[in-house]
Structure formats: C-alpha cells, structure tokens
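S.,

As promised, the NAP run. Input:
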Amino acid sequence: MRVAVTGAGGRLGSALVKTLPSAPFVREVLAWDLPEHDLDDPTSAERLIGTFRPDAVVHCAAWTDVDGCARDPDLAMRRNGTAVGEIARTCVSVGAGLVVVSTNEVFDGSRTDGLPYAPTEPPNPANPYGASKLQGEAAARAAFQATGRDFDAAALAEAGEQVAPLAIVRTAWLFGRPGMDFPQKILAAAERSRDQHQSLALVSDEIGTPTYAPDLAWAIVRLLAEAARPNGRGFGGIHHVVNGGQASRAAWAREVLRLAGVDVVTSDVPSTTWPRPSTPPAWGVLQTTPLPGGPLRDWRVALAEHMSLPNSHEEAGG
Ligand SMILES: NC(=O)c1ccc[n+]([C@@H]2O[C@H](COP(=O)([O-])OP(=O)(O)OC[C@H]3O[C@@H](n4cnc5c(N)ncnc54)[C@H](OP(=O)(O)O)[C@@H]3O)[C@@H](O)[C@H]2O)c1
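Predicted complex:
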C-alpha cells in the first residue's frame, strides 16, 4: 500500500509517519502538511491525491485549536468540514481508501448515567470545533455514499463484517510529541505554582480518556492492515479508539506529577474557573470498538512509557 498522511507534522500525523514504514504491507508513506497540503485551499486535495494516487489516505490534519474554532466557526467549518469533503471526493475518484480522524467532541458530553458514548449514538456537538468535525464526518460519508460505498456501522456490526473503504476514527485527549501536550502544560504550570507559592488548580469535572498518539497510530495501522490483507475484514465504519480507562483532567494531571516526581500542592476546581470561548464536553468517554489485535493499553501505562522517554518533559520547564 502507498499511504498518504495529512497533518504529517502534527501529534498523530508524526506518530503515523514513524509507525507506518515498519508495517509489512506499506510500500511507501507520503507525508503531507502545510504548505503543500492546505485545508484553506480547495484545490489542495485534488492536486496531491490526484497526482500521487495513494491507495489510502489517513486524514489527520485539522484545525485543533478549539477556542480558535469557537472564535471563527466559519473558518472551522472550512478546515474541518468542507476540506474533508474535498479529500473524500478525490479519494473516491482515484479509488483510494480514507481514514478520517475525528473527535469525542461530536458528542455534547451531557450524559450523566456514567455510560460511554457508543459509535451508534447520535452525535450532538456542543461547540463549533465539534460541529466542524462532525461536518467533516458527514462530508466524507456523503462522498462515499454517492458511490454506494458508504458504511452503515450498525448493519456492518450486525453482519460481523466491515467492507467499506471509509473509516471514521474518533479519539480523545491526545498526548505525545511534538509540541506542548497536556502533560507538558501541567509540568510548566506546576513550576509556576511552586515559584509563586500557590496551589496548582486542576479541573475535576471534565472526564475523558487520555490517549497516547503512538498507540492510536498503531491502531490505525492495524485497521489499514485489515484492508491490505487478502480476504481481510476491511476497515470501514465508525471506530472509537482511545486508551483504556478514564480520568478527570485533575486525575490525569496528578498522574503526570507523580510520574515526574513533582511535589506541588494541588486543588480541585470546576472548569468554569477559566471561562473559555469553547465549552468542552463534561463527559467525553467513548465506548471503544473492537480493534484487530485487541484494545489499546490503559492510559496510565502509556503515560508512564511516554514520560520515561528522554526529553519527554524537559521542554516544559523552558
Ligand atoms: N489533540 C487532541 O486532543 C485530539 C482529540 C480528539 C481528536 N483529535 C483529532 O485528531 C487529529 C490529529 O490531531 P493532533 O492532536 O495530531 O493535531 P495537531 O498536533 O494540531 O496537528 C494538526 C496538523 O494539521 C495541520 N494543519 C493545521 N491547520 C492546517 C491547515 N489549514 N492546512 C493544512 N494542515 C493544517 C497542522 O500543521 P501545523 O502544525 O503546521 O499547523 C498539524 O500538522 C485531528 O483530526 C484532531 O481533530 C485530536
């Protein structure tokens, strides 16, 4: 397979670009990012996908600044919605499979029964980022539906098979390199709190599942492998892929501090302590879908591995 990755310099994209070459079914990895792939440019998808004709595209590029999306919802729709339709239509025209990476924020997070969101549940985004990502899912589905190759997740699950060349992979709370991820932000904030002799305030009423970008990358590679395998199950459908377990932002932060051996006084606060343009879902827990090769490991195990890597939290103090 020749596999193209958009957003190749981002957190998930860079993990994929690192992981894909070790998969035996991968012949070539095409790594695309700004400026050659630009979600603002309606000709970008056709130019790249039409020219290089990959067998599959993993679409990781997105405008992930959720507060930015809330300030400019039209631009969010362009980048996270309309642009996905352009990519999907070009994939259809060249016969390429497509993996669209989406988010738990397509759900409003108002559930109070403690159950995770299943892929079959109707989404209802509560903020412009979630709305734009849902629009991207819909645009991709419309492009594949036009050829009769869309999936019906419920029907496929019932039949025990997946045959369509479009996969939507919803995930949540990604951490890993590059850039300032949540663990790094917490370590930097802890240092500031200690310097100012203040306690570190942690949000305790937002629940989700921290997900290690390299683990998600492996899961996507395993899904692609199913498509590449003769008589494989294909990879179509809506997949909810997160590490095992769940946590509040506060619990996640405390685990980061524990693993880094940072001793700082902490206090729990509600998310309303810091009003933001975008409202994150209070309950963002996804019910994971069965993955070839089994479920991803618990988020704490993944976090421990991430934080044991050289330089994994050195940037935070800078
Ligand atoms: N991060 C999370 O917690 C999270 C949670 C759930 C779902 N997701 C989804 O997972 C996927 C990967 O997220 P991530 O955390 O890897 O995001 P990321 O680190 O922000 O990477 C996004 C990538 O998209 C590129 N990009 C941004 N604006 C672009 C534009 N206008 N045109 C072309 N490329 C553009 C970025 O390039 P530059 O770096 O040059 O701007 C970057 O390479 C996204 O679809 C996101 O919606 C993320």
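Residues 7, 9-13, 33-34, 37-40, 60-64, 79, 101, 103, 133, 171-174 surround NAP (CB under 6 Å). The first strand starts at residue 2 and ends at 6.

- D.
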